[in-house]
Design brief:
Oligomer: single chain
Strand content: 25-35%
Radius of gyration: 15 Å
Strand order of the largest sheet: 1-2-3-5-6-7-4
Largest sheet: 7 strands, antiparallel
Order of helices and strands: EEEHEEEEHH
Number of domains: 1
Shape: globular
CATH architecture: Roll
CATH superfamily: Hotdog Thioesterase
């Protein structure tokens, strides 16, 4: 599996964001996968992870799923989340997403967050609009691969 690039200050994937999740996204070229453990600072109610945290993970992984299939980058256009049960600090959670359809002016994806036993905590669907090439070049300028190098468009593709 191939690791996808990250922005070091990103709340979801950034290794340098002390309040963030520091998730590494990996792809097999078809789907994107991640594992993470939310902390106490990610709660809404005591001992319950805020739903916005799970939504952020689903949004990010679904966007990467489209990127890994197309090599393009996207802005979220629409996001729908269905929560199945509350998550708690310290849990080991898994997320997986895949691109569903290319509608031309936007792409769709779906994702799911489960625990290690496969119990579902949240599912999401999203619509994503492509970022213009010049904006993509700017974004690529501050993303990093695991080795600290700057990614190219080819590094965005899975496989």
């Amino acid at each position: 599996m191939k690791s996808l690039p990250r922005y070091r200050q990103c709340f979801v994937c950034g290794a340098d964001n002390s309040a963030g999740l520091a998730i590494t996204f990996r792809t097999d070229g078809e789907k994107v996968y991640a594992e993470f453990s939310p902390r106490e600072c990610h709660t809404g109610y005591k001992a319950h992870i805020h739903g916005g945290i799970l939504a952020s993970v689903l949004d990010e992984i679904m966007g990467w799923a489209i990127c890994a299939r197309t090599g393009l980058m996207f802005y979220t256009w629409e996001l729908t989340i269905r929560y199945h049960r509350p998550a708690h600090p310290g849990m080991r959670l898994r997320a997986v997403a895949n691109m569903v359809e290319d509608k031309g002016r936007y792409q769709t994806a779906e994702g799911c967050i489960t625990d290690e036993q496969g119990e579902i905590y949240a599912r999401g669907t999203g619509k994503y609009k492509p970022i213009k090439d010049e904006e993509r070049a700017e974004i690529l300028s501050y993303l990093e691969k695991e080795d600290g190098e700057r990614p190219t468009v080819d590094d965005l593709l899975g496989g």
